[in-house]
Amino acid sequence: MSSGPYREEMFFLFGLTTREHLQSTRSASCRYCGRFAPQQVIQRRTKISVFFIPLLTVNKTRLQVCTNCGGTSRINGAEERALVR
Ligand SMILES: [Zn+2]
Fold first, then answer.
1. What does the domain layout of the chain look like in residue ranges?
2. CB-based contacts of 80, cutoff 8 Å, min separation 6
3. Of 30 and 12, which is predicted with more confidence?
4. Ligand 1 centroid, distance to 41 Cα (angstroms)
C-alpha cells in the first residue's frame, strides 16, 4: 500500500432547506378566480445547509396566494410593491 498508514475521509452533509414566511396580506383582485379577496404575499427562501447549518441563500422567490381559491403565482419585486402599496 502506497497511501500510508492513515486514510482520512471527509464527508459533508449537504442539504437544502426551504423556509416560507408570510410577509403581508392585502386585498386585491385575483387573477385566477377574479374575486376581490385577501392575497397573501409569502417569501420563500431556499438555503444550502452543511451539517444542518444554513450557509447560502440560493433561491429567493415571492408567492402570492389567494385566500379564496388558493391560486398561487410567483411575483416579482415590482408586482409586490404594487400590491403592498
Ligand atoms: Zn382566487
1. 24-64
2. 41, 62
3. 30
4. 13
Q: Which residue has the cell 438555503?
A: 47
Assigned C-alpha cell, 52: 444542518
Surrounding ion ligand 1 within 5 Å at CB are: 30, 32-33, 66, 68-69, 71
Query: 3-state SS string over the chain?
Result: CCCCCCCCCCCCCEEEEEEEEEEEEEEEECCCCCCEEEEEEEEEEEEEEECCEEEEEEEEEEEEEECCCCCEEEECHHHHHHHHC
Question: Are 43 and 1 in contact, with CB atoms under 8 Å apart?
Answer: no
Cα 84 to averaged position of ligand 1 atoms, centre (Å): 17
What does pTM read for this prediction? 0.66
Mean pLDDT estimate for the chain: 85
Query: From the CA of 48, how far away is ligand 1's center (Å)?
Result: 33
